[in-house]
User: What shape does this take?
Amino acid sequence: MSLLSRVAERIYWTARYLERAETTSRLARVYGNLLLDLPRQAGLSWDVVIQITGGASLYRELKPNPSQDTAERFFVADRNNPSSVRSSLANARESIRTTRDIVPSEAWRSVNELCMYVTQELDAETSHRRRYGIHSRVVEGCQQISGLLADTMSHDAAYQFFRVGRSIERADMTTRIIDVAAAMMLDREDIARFDSTLWMGVLQSLSAYQMYRQKVRRRIYGPDVILYLFKDQQFPRAIAFSLREIGAALASLPRNADSLKKLGQLRSMLSVFEVTRLDVAALHQWIDDAQLALGELHGLVHATWFEPTASAVGQPTAAVSQTQTLPLAAKP
Amino acid sequence: MPIDWTQYQPGEFFDELFAAPGTARPAAAQLANYLASLGGRELAERQGDAERAIAEMGITFTVYTEGQNIDRAWPFDVIPRTIEANEWARIERGLVQRLTALNRFIDDLYHERRVIAAGIVPEDIIATSVNFLPACVGANPPYGVWANICGTDLVRDKDGTVYVLEDNLRVPSGVSYMLENRIITKQVFPEMFEHASILPVDDYASQLLDMLASLSPRKVEFPRVVVLTPGIYNSAYFEHSYLAQRMGVDLVEGSDLVVADDECVYVRTIRGLERVDVIYRRINDTFLDPECFDKDSALGVPGLMRAWRAQNVALANAPGAGVADDKVVYAYVPKLIEYYLGEKAILPNVPTLLLRDEVTRKRVLADLSRWVVKPANESGGYGMLIGPRATAEEKVAMAAAVEADPRNYIAQPVLALSTAPTLVHGEIEPRHLDLRPFILQGQRIWVTPGGLTRVALRRGSLVVNSSQGGGSKDTWIVAVDP
Assistant: This one.
């Protein structure tokens, strides 16, 4: 019995939303700390973080009189911001509750509890110290759910969609974090002296600091960090690792030719990528291209498996044993 | 402090557990001793355990949007309701007999209509039934069975007679509560299950899957069965999801299914379209197919009725089966049993007056306070009038409704529903109850051992529906050694 397209889609989005909630919470935690560490003239503010998640224009529209506090709330707690921690978790919950016949029931319970906890805590006016705790709980909760699925769910097609969703989101978030950090730092002489603090922040927001230190044994230097987060084969939040993960998951799915081809394109883009000199414009261009390719990969996944009727016309349909399969092209 | 059952006074009513104060019925004897030995405080603690278990499951089951309490719609009473196995065997025979006859009747109505020609049921009753679907005339569901899943409501009167109150042949719900209640009771009273012979209920899902698979038009080893739900906002969504999960089949929404040019039903999967053999549909008839019924229905599947009529897919229950759970048709069921099976009904109907008859109508409307008046096609206790409890305004409104549409109203005498001991605010008190067993008919016919006992938690109340202060209990069919 093959997996329903709708279920595959919801599981894919569950993974993306959980990953988004986790990374967003991590960013909030790290930037919250950095803001305390750095003097005002370093120019770091919540606006930078909002820029990372691509919500800058929506933010300006919703909050005409921005302050640090409204910015943080927008980023973390605002239901009108589709990328806030709260929205991401609510969307994950929404997706998972309609796939409860497929996903282990403990996972539903965990998502539900996490959602209720966050709603409760975020509704209450909380101190900075308390908010730090909320973000830690979100990160832990998301990791718990991932671990739970990895250990209690069959690693069947449904699980592969979870892997694909998580890794596409991860690769995308990693490029965004670096894009914004680089734009802030690489072209500004005046904050050069905070350079290593900021790059440490970037590493921490991807939980990469400790692993990075083990691998790169010299003082923290921007291009090193970028190379590590792009090309390291062993660190799970590095782009290279995420792409390999996507490839492994796609390999066991039917009708995967187009998606694998697009993935190959991304991987060769990455293999020729180098940062020897700090060229922000070139870096930004590369990241733009990579994000575009990731978006196209998402589009192919969507067209191939989630909306098979629209896309699969003209594609050879894999023969399926046991169950009779009607070639999609035959559909009126 | 041990429980003193002589203090338990059901009064004039038939009590399910006690024949007289302090004297338990044979099926309840072991339970009564056990509860007495626990004592009131311990019993209250176990009720607390049950509520915690439900709250914990509630986390798993809650389907509504955030912010709402984790609250089960239906409160649970920890004291089980017992029925002796011998008595149950007779009830079970009665239920099998009844559903067999009802299915013969539905099949007849959509084919030769011998029952009308024979003068058993007046033609105009069928002609005016909103649940009779012309689109189903001449269709041939497998084994000639239209209602594959039936939930029949039983009540017991003062003298101990068990009556059929109504048949639910469309999309009856509640079976998940039956299963859940047993899971909780086993956690709360594990000692009882070690010693007493209580029939298990937990194979419902496999019985259901077997029955559904027996309807498959393709004779393959593993036909593809799906559960069709209207979606997350339906109040029974949890049950749909639960049953799909327990059967190990896909829970689908209308948009997952497509009828192709070959008039077969397919489900959209990651491998492409795959054939579907049997649909356990939990959406109402008229939402099934926008081509055929409600054009605006977004829940259904265009072409589904064509596929069903071509016998390329089985629908359970078959569309149109609801014609036999009209409360006016209900009045004829004992005659239908005689007509189709040549047997007397084992389970009697509650005496029912049809208000379409002018003389009867005048008699009932003249003294509404003696009667229960019900509309023919409502469920969930909606639109019903309980005469002795009704206000003058309610009676006037009901009289007007009946006069406006006499065909669609019936009247029944007020029954003195049986009671069972129920824990209410820490005290054990008698409360009225009913029973909904579930009957499955495909190639074979099967009845749940027991069913869902619904209890009116308000003192003196006769309404067991969850929206009106009802709760539920576990139901034990107990074998008693001779």
Notes: Confidence is low (pLDDT under 50) at residues 310-332 of chain A.
